[in-house]
Amino acid sequence: MAMTFEQQPKESDKAFAAFSLYLSLGAERSTREVGKQLGKSEGLIERWAAKFDWRSRVAAHAAHLAVVEREAIEAAARSKAAEWESREQKLRDTEWAMHERAIAAAEKAFTAFMAREKVYANLADIARMLEIASKLGRLATGLDTDGERKRNELPAVRVEVKVALERIYGEPLPGEIIDVESGGKRLLTSGPTGGTE
């Protein structure tokens, strides 16, 4: 079936040319203007307009153009969204790679520190390196830096640097919670106050 703005069955070439002109006139369209431009009587143009339903064809053409325009806008939006998704993935990959490098550097510095080798980082530097690595890892895996889940819901590993350092170097601070192993079970106790959970 032909589109309503294309030449209709039994529509002469002259009648279709008149319709095409009518369609192209836009806001200024009228059968009088078509007759004037083609040198035809307005009565003839009105008969063609009625017989071949010009008003419905113009409305169908306008609706078709609106659909084409909407589809073009949606295609452009999808393309832009895909472009930003690609950029986001590239950034996440970069952040993850930096996270891995920061973890490796912190591990190397910590190993040297524990072996009492000459290192250019103290425990505060190592802790800061791990904090930065943790933030990069959280960003790369879809967590914000406060640990809240973002839209992609990927899993994350939480690094407890302070607790690990306290276990290695001494007693916890008053009121702090530590893990205590007792008979194969893990109990939580709070520092010097001795309360247990």
Radius of gyration: 38 Å
**Fraction in helix:** 55-70%
Quickly count the helices. 6
Output the strand order for the largest sheet.
Answer: 1-2
Largest sheet: 2 strands, antiparallel
User: How confident is the prediction overall: mean pLDDT?
Assistant: 75
| Span of the ends, CA to CA | 79 Å
From the helix content, strand content and strand pairing, which structural class follows? Answer: mainly alpha
Total beta strand runs: 2
Strand content: 5-15%
N-to-C order of helices and strands: HHHHHHEE
The best one-word shape is: rod-shaped
Seen as an oligomer or otherwise, the chain set is: single chain
Uncertain ranges: 152-159, 180-197
